[in-house]
From TrEMBL:
Coiled-coil ranges per UniProt: none
InterPro entries reported in the protein's UniProt record: ArsR-like_HTH, HTH_ArsR_DNA-bd_dom, Metal_resp_trans_reg, Rhodanese-like_dom, Rhodanese-like_dom_sf, Thiosulphate_STrfase_CS, WH-like_DNA-bd_sf, WH_DNA-bd_sf
HTH arsR-type domain: residues covered: 8-102
UniProt domain Rhodanese: residue ranges: 132-217
UniProt xrefs under CDD domains: HTH_ARSR, RHOD
Pfam families: HTH_5, Rhodanese
Gene3D superfamilies per UniProt: Rhodanese-like domain, Winged helix-like DNA-binding domain superfamily/Winged helix DNA-binding domain
NCBIfam families in alphabetical order: HTH_metalloreg (NF033788)
Official protein name in the record: Transcriptional regulator, ArsR family
GO molecular function: DNA binding; DNA-binding transcription factor activity; thiosulfate-cyanide sulfurtransferase activity
Keywords assigned by UniProt, alphabetized: DNA-binding, Transcription, Transcription regulation
Amino acid sequence: MAANSRPFKEAVYAELARLGKAMGNPRRMELLDLLSQGPKSVEALARETQQSLANVSQHLQTLLDARLVKFYKRGNYSVYQLADDRIMDLLLKVQELGEWLYRAIETERETWIQPLDSHMPLTADQLSVLMKDSDVVLIDVRPRDEYEFDHIPGAWSIPIEELEQTMAKLPKDKQIVAYCRGRYCLFAAEAVQILRRHGYRAVRVEQGVREWRRATSVSGGRIVR
């Protein structure tokens, strides 16, 4: 007679459901996406997501309980990061699956990005080929702390809020390629709009450093152990 496996199955699926429950909230998904760019304090996450410190702390506690994030102390600040590089891989897979299942995601992207930059963006693979050309300058328009945590080799750090004040150092005889956090970030599209308005040849990369590393199999980023 076969053993009753129901208790075993219930125990296993209850544990797996913790993952879905923790990620099953739009605010927590956004927090995980931000943390995939590098470690951030609770205060920085609150500013980025325009939430209160109390709300962010509550969401982070849920993610911590599910072992999706961890934190360390930096003076009086608690700094959070992804618990493991595999969490980043999971996020990218969820985004890919979500876009395949739900057309509304792509519709929202087009609604926000098209007015800024209607030109065809580069893929991570195309960027890898283009970077072999000395007539290209790659700029990372994310916040500088994210650039310092990880960036595409050879990229210049020019945060989007500093671009108009510092663009004079960019050569006008070369093509400028901008990238940011990835497909759900508007910084690169905004950068291309600004650069073209000032007479630069500019194009954006649709993916960010995470996708580029996965496409090129180049390791990077540093999860603090």
